[in-house]
Each structure stands twice: as structure tokens, then as C-alpha cells.
């Protein structure tokens, strides 16, 4: 049987390749915060309190552009609403944990951590302490995001813009879902949600990130109906 | 005002993270619901990938000659056959850099 620490380590190693996009993105975020005129403490506080990459950039951009705080807060809520779906998926594996543990683990749930730990939890749903995988991936991502933000705040845009490292973000997500491409139903659902997101990209409050997964899930529902 | 906004945005984000985990009742997990939840990664991540590849910084469609398209295709092909996360990311980035720096 694997110990808690061993499972934690698997979580770390599973998520490690994704740091290739998380670290540059964190540095870019820290630099953007300062460029937009926010002080270092405030810029860093968003990483600690909000801890949600893209939503932090949108939040600071909107506020510095003179948007009302209500609009900035709503946008953060909409962008991060996808966590509700992650939570629904993970709750099945975490339901036996105490409330305190659930509240603690929840803080560390982000896209890449959810993605890699979901795969592990699915395969090892009966293993005791399997949630340590989620902690391993989540705490690794959290720590790197905090450090990268601080580097960006103090050293500025040390990541050359010409490298186009923003492109590493879609690439890491491709790596995450690549195995699902083999299943026709998943492929169909991916195309539906991807095209919907592209179509609705300019919708207010970045709501494409909420609309397209819901349309995708509806497509999944229809596929399941047809399969029966 | 900004500090208040950061705390409210932080609280809302935290609620999106813990809401389902703490409040959802195990009994609503019937077989159909579980089957649909299986598709969550397949609906959320393409919603980030497609715009990231097909749109530019201003939200307009890129042209068919855009290096991002070929970088993404390379990553998909290499990823599909290698089943390796690192190869997928590196091959996508390398082909993208080759296109923007050499050609």
C-alpha cells in the first residue's frame, strides 16, 4: 500500500510537466500587475486570495481600465465558475473526508491539478488516502504560482514576449485531454464545446467559459440518450 | 475599494471551488449524472484550447497560416501516438518556434 507521502509525490510528478506553462504565466501575470499600476502587495494578494490565473489578469485589467468593481468581480466569478464542475466531479472521491479537509483541499483546486488528479482518482478510487494526489498536484501548482508571481512582480517581464509562451497554455491542455481523443463521443463533445467557445469568445464577462462547457455537456447528454 | 474587491472576488472563487465538494449530496449521484460528469474535462479544456489557438490577442480569428495552428496540430499528432504529456507540449512549442523564428 502506498503511503500518503508517496501518493503526494505521484501528484507532484504528474503535474510537473504542466509547470512549463504555469511558471511563465505566473511571471507574466506578476509583471502585468505592476505594468497596470498596481502595487506589489496588491498584485501578489490576488495570487494568494483569488488564486486563479486568467481571472486575476482580467480582474486587474478591468479595474485599471476604469470598470466598476462589480463588473470585475462578476467576471472573476464567471471565469472561475468552471470549478463548480470540477467540484461536482471530485466530490465523489472526497465525500468521505471531514469538512475541514474538504475546505482545505478545495483552496488548491485548479485546472491542471484537477485534470491530472481526476485521472488518478478514477483509476484508484478505492485506494485510501488517494486524495493526497490532489494535494500533491494542487500544492505544487499553488507554490509555483506564488513564486512565479513574485518573480514577475520584482523582475518584470523576464519572459521574452517573442517566445509566445502564452501558447504553452492551450498546449498543456491539449496534453491533458489527448487520451480522450480516442473516444468518438468525447471527440464530438470537444469539437462542440471548442467551437462554441470560439464563437462566444467576445460575449460579456468572458461568459464563453461558462456557456460552452454547458452546451458541451448538453451535447454529451444527447449522445448518451442516442447510445441507449 | 480595490482591496474589498479582491476579497470578494477571492471569496466567490473559493466558493466555486468548495461549493460542490462540501454541499453536494452523494445521493444525487445516479448513474446518468455520473456518466455526464465523465465529460467535464472534455467540455472545459477545449473551451480554453480552441480560442487559444484559433483567436489572436484581440479575439479575431487567425488565418490558416498562423503558426499556432500548426503547433497545435503537431502537439495533437505527437500526443496521440506517444501518449506522453511532455512530448506533447515540447513538440507543439518546438514546431511553433521553428515556424516563427526560422520560416
What's the SSE blueprint?
The complex is a heterodimer of chains A (228) and B (103).
Chain A: H1 4-15, H2 19-35, H3 40-49, H4 53-64, H5 69-80, H6 82-94, H7 99-106, H8 111-123, H9 131-155, H10 168-177, H11 184-199, H12 208-227
Helix pairs in contact in A: 1-9, 2-4, 2-9, 3-9, 4-5, 6-8, 8-9, 11-12
Chain B: H1 2-23, H2 31-37, H3 40-54, H4 67-82, H5 85-101
Q: How would you describe this structure to a colleague?
A:
The complex is a heterodimer of chains A (228) and B (103). With 228 residues, chain A is mostly helical. Helix content of chain A is 74%, strand content 0%. Chain A is built from twelve helices and no strands. Chain B is mainly α and 103 residues long. In chain B, helix 4 packs antiparallel against helix 5. The radius of gyration of chain B is 20 Å and the shape is extended. Chains A and B meet through helix 3, helix 4, helix 5, helix 6 and helix 7 of A and helix 1, helix 2, helix 3, helix 4 and helix 5 of B.
Descriptive labels:
heterodimer; A: mainly alpha; 12 helices; 74% helix; B: 103 residues; mainly alpha; 5 helices
Reported for the largest beta sheet of chain A, the result is: none
Order of helices and strands of chain A: HHHHHHHHHHHH
Poorly predicted residue ranges of chain A: none
- Tell me what portion of residues of chain A adopts beta-strand conformation: under 5%
Q: Give the biggest beta sheet of chain B.
A: none
Radius of gyration of chain A: 18 Å
Question: H/E series of chain B, N to C?
Answer: HHHHH
SSE-based structural type of chain A: mainly alpha
Instruction: Give the overall form of chain B.
Output: extended
Tally the helices of chain B: what do you get? Answer: 5
Low-confidence stretches of chain B: none
The radius of gyration over CA of chain B amounts to 20 Å
- What separation lies between the terminal Cα atoms of chain A? 39 Å
Mean pLDDT across residues of chain B: 92
